[in-house]
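Researcher: I'd like a structural prediction for the single chain below. Treat it as a standalone chain; there are no partners to consider.
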Amino acid sequence: MRRRHDEEYTVIEPSYSMSYTIDPYGATHNASRRPFFSLTELKNIAIAVSVLIIALTLVLLKMLDMDIPSTIALAVLAVFLGFFSHEMAHKVLARKYGCWSEFRANMRGLGLALLMSFFGFLFAAPGAVYIVGHITREQNGKISVVGPFSNILIAAACLPFLDMWNLGVPTIVEEMASVLLFFNAFLAAFNMVPIPPLDGSKVWAWNKQIYIAAMAAAALMFILALMIA
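Model: Treating it as a single chain, here is the predicted structure.
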């Protein structure tokens, strides 16, 4: 039994986490019998997304010379491509491994985000995908890395729309790409920090080579975002 606990984990819902935590003595749930979204999860997603859109809109209004409708549209795009895709990547892969997985909003983190946005900053812990189920160390690492990886892909996809390539990209498109690049690069780099409960700590525990590669990619995107900003 001791060996099994060393090699297999049970993920349980924590009181607070940026993603999820592990307990080798938790219970299991059959994800295949559950709908993809529960009403509780949809409510939590709606709250988190709405607050983040408001907070990011307030920050962008101070940063960019854009009209309010365009700024709101950019905030919506950034939240869904950055935050939502990150959390759903965790959820989808966890369900693939047979785990129960649902997003839960962090009301304190969202309140902090809204408060700081009035001062022109956006730094928050809006919530996490909590999962329950038996998984191996490798599966746990993959569930963890897929969130930041989605942000890295989105950040990389923004690069062709930046003026540094001299392609005559419209200014508004370049500004949107720059914001999306920074937002996703920051999310990827921050979540790859190897400190619990961040994703990076679980990736590091699973495979240090993959951690280094993922962190290097996230850091590169973040450095490019800072250079362009």
